[in-house]
Backbone:
């Protein structure tokens, strides 16, 4: 059973990934290739539909040339939304 908090963190994480990806003007398809993941998986993440593994979070942070902690700092800034 999914909780509202679980849905919220997934949505916030997806929004953060989309924000950083679009700021860099990277398409979902290109980003997926950079991460070694499928484009539909990236789409699901950005829409808050996936519970992402730590390994995939690491892949995405490296593709964005960011620290994992910076992604989560963005989430913390937007938690009240």
Residues:
């Amino acid at each position: 059973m999914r909780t509202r908090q679980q849905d919220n963190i997934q949505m916030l994480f997806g929004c953060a990934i989309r924000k950083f990806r679009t700021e860099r003007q990277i398409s979902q398809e290109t980003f997926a290739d950079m991460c070694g993941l499928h484009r539909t998986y990236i789409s699901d993440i950005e829409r808050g539909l996936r519970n992402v593994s730590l390994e995939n979070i690491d892949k995405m942070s490296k593709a964005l040339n960011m620290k994992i902690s910076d992604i989560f700092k963005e989430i913390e800034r937007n938690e009240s939304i």
In short: The longest helix spans residues 4-23. The mean pLDDT is 92. The CA atoms of residues 3 and 66 lie 29 Å apart. The radius of gyration is 12 Å.
